[in-house]
Amino acid sequence: MVYVIYGFAGLFLVLCATMLFVFYRDRHFGMFIMGVTYGASGLIAISIPHWWPLVMGFALAWLLRLMGLEPQIEPRDEGGESNAQVEGRKEGGKQGSSN
């Protein structure tokens, strides 16, 4: 059972590293808080080999997600541009033609 706890704790640490990398690239504060939550629960589960830190970390991360700290996902078109980029280009074209 201890090896299962260590495996999930290691997975939580990988999630922590991934979320902190996303925070480094996008500067979304919710990803930082969720990454720290996963990392702290993974480290606590490794230091005291018990299952409850993993459950609490997962529950806290979902609570943060429900509070709206997860970044919004923008759908992309076939060319790889987001809808905001396409609409910005359309708005720029309309403004340029009215002059």
Q: What is the number of helical segments per DSSP (H or I, 4+ residues)?
A: 4
Strand content: under 5%
Number of domains: 1
Helix content estimate: over 70%
- Backbone structural class: mainly alpha
Largest sheet: none
What integer value in Å does the Rg equal? Answer: 20 Å
Shape: elongated
Distance between the termini: 71 Å
What does this protein look like?
The chain contains 4 helices and no strands. It is mainly α. The protein has one domain (2-98). Helix 1 (2-26) packs antiparallel against helix 2 and helix 2 packs antiparallel against helix 3 (52-66). It is elongated.
Please outline what is shown here:
With 99 residues, this protein is an all-alpha fold. It is built from 4 helices and no strands.
What layout of secondary structure does this protein have?
Blueprint: H1 2-26, H2 29-47, H3 52-66, H4 83-98
List its salient traits.
4 helices, 99 residues, mainly alpha
